[in-house]
Design the sequence.
């Protein structure tokens, strides 16, 4: 009798397990991976006639473009975009309170002083009032990318950065 009870319990457990497996499928068929193409891309750079791009660092350590200031006249109308030297001064001053609240920071030291910038066809030379040879890779990329997009650039210019302690090799923005 005990043996029949045990078999009956085992049978009920087995039936319950089979039912659970069948019910969890819910009629969804297995399928192969469907290729849908490349991930979506979004252009984050505003119109070069309207804004300057400054590059700060996200909380994950990635270089992040931020639309810089626009000069506005007394009536609140657009006047002209930020010149490259002013953009570099804004970069060295660090992110705005709004950008910091969004998790952005800078790897560059705060600096004040003369910033020089010369741009030509596909080349930009920048002089900043900081020692550049000891800067980390991300800090240098912040300078290079901001300079490459300065004054209507499309980011492809070769940028040379010089500072209080010498000059770095020419490089391109890899943001």
Sequence:
């Amino acid at each position: 009798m005990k043996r029949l009870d045990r078999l009956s319990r085992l049978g009920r457990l087995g039936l319950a397990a089979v039912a659970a497996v069948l019910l969890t499928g819910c009629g969804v068929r297995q399928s192969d991976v469907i290729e849908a193409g490349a991930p979506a891309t979004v252009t984050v750079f505003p119109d070069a006639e309207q804004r300057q791009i400054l590059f700060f660092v996200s909380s994950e350590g990635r270089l992040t473009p931020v639309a810089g200031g626009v000069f506005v006249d007394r009536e609140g109308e657009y006047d002209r975009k930020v010149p490259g030297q002013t953009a570099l001064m804004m970069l060295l001053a660090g992110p705005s309170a709004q950008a910091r609240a969004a998790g952005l920071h800078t790897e560059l030291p705060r600096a004040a002083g003369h910033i020089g910038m010369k741009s030509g066809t596909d080349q930009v030379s920048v002089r900043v009032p900081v020692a550049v040879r000891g800067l980390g890779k991300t800090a240098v990329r912040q300078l290079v990318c901001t300079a490459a997009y300065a004054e209507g650039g499309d980011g492809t210019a070769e940028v040379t950065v010089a500072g209080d302690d010498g000059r770095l090799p020419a490089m391109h923005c890899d943001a």
Notes: The longest strand covers residues 158-163. Residues 2-25 form the longest helix (24 residues). The radius of gyration is 29 Å.
